[in-house]
Amino acid sequence: MHHELIHKLKSKNAVIGILGLGYVGQPLMLRYTDIGFKVVGFDIDAEKVNELNSGHSQIEHIADSKILSAVEKGFEATADFSRIGECDALILCVPTPLSKHREPDMSYVIGTTDMLKPYLREGQVVSLESTTYPGTTEEVLLPRMEEGGLKVGESLFLVYSPEREDPGNPNFETRTIPKVVGGHTEACREVGIALYEPAIDEIVPVSSTKAAELTKLLENIHRAVNIGLVNEMKVVADRMGIDIFEVIDAAKTKPFGFTAYYPGPGLGGHCIPIDPFYLTWKAREYGLHTRFIELSGEVNRAMPEYVLNKLMDGLNDHGKSLRGSKILVLGIAYKKNVDDMRESPSVEIMELIQAKGAEVAYSDPHVPKFPKMREHSFNLSSIELTPENIASYDAVVLATDHDKFDFDAIYEHAQLIIDSRGKYRHVNGKVVKA
Q1: Among 44, 85, 91, 345, which residue's Cβ finds the most Cβ atoms within 10 Å?
Q2: Can 271 be counted among the known catalytic residues?
Q3: How far is Cα 102 from Cα 183, in angstroms, rounded to an integer?
Q4: Tens of pLDDT along 14-38?
Q5: Count of structural domains within the chain
Q6: Does some domain include residue 236?
Q7: pTM score of the predicted model
Q8: Of 87, 93, 188, 271, catalytic
Q9: Are the C-beta atoms of 400 and 331 separated by less than 8 Å?
């Protein structure tokens, strides 16, 4: 059975189904469509489905022309999960957030699996790409997939292949980012390799789905821990009157043994603030405590409060209190030059400012209107950065350093700047480094 599916995938006669048409699913869909596969996209958001079918992506860095081209090549988006049976490969790209108790929220993975399982048939491969804890593929997907009598590894195939996306990074695209692939059985792994080999330049097979799941967590934990370290160093350097950015720039001239990480107002994005705690949660099942992960999380989660305190100190030095002040937050996407708001520390900073009795507004050229979010709500639109608007605020907080910002104009007209990104590191006076 698996040899037939491998042949179908290698000859590009397979139909690819992508479940979840967001920041991960859309680039994957475009890649498979570009190389000649028929692709069906599934999403429970009817508005998104309609927009994609009309050639609009809703994601800033994905041009409408690319979506329109994909539609012209045969791509269809649908909310009708009964069409699962049309697909030979099913790739799950759904969210895996944390609950309010900072435990894995598997509801999207479970819900999607439950929606597809009535339509599973012989000769299909299911690949989970959502970042999760080691064991998810075997413990959550496997039993559900076998409920109908199909046997994984014989008539149905199960793979874990973690997504690796960096929105807004022009140096990498779906094709050029190596793909880790782990299968539940050897036959599953062979099918998984055949699924991704036509679309990705380099495939990295690993021995199991658990190994692939832990690979993804290690990548993100490595980044979270090092950002936590440099954020702690920022606080220490500030207390000592040392410019942390100068120190990092000097340290990175060492040609071995050092990788530069930069401090900021906290962690954002769909991976780094969340994924490490999937391992922390799972490790407790084995009686283990992941102290590095928990400590770095503690440091990184404290950064929005650190920025708030710097704002209050700066206002105090100007004879003002935060209560009753007007504060403009510059940049609410989680990183520069994207419209991605997931887990953005800017939003927490806005909430902290508002809770202290200040009037808060924002400016972000990539986010014209504050979007609907699961846990945050502001009825705000982006403020245009005219000289008059900038000068009308008691302070501006630079949270995300988009290239589209005119930093000279901001400096000229702002009354006070709270700089969490080091853009004004060589400037004194009305700049407070945060």
Answers
A1: 91
A2: yes
A3: 28
A4: 999 999 999 899 999 999 999 999 9
A5: 2
A6: no
A7: 0.90
A8: 271
A9: yes
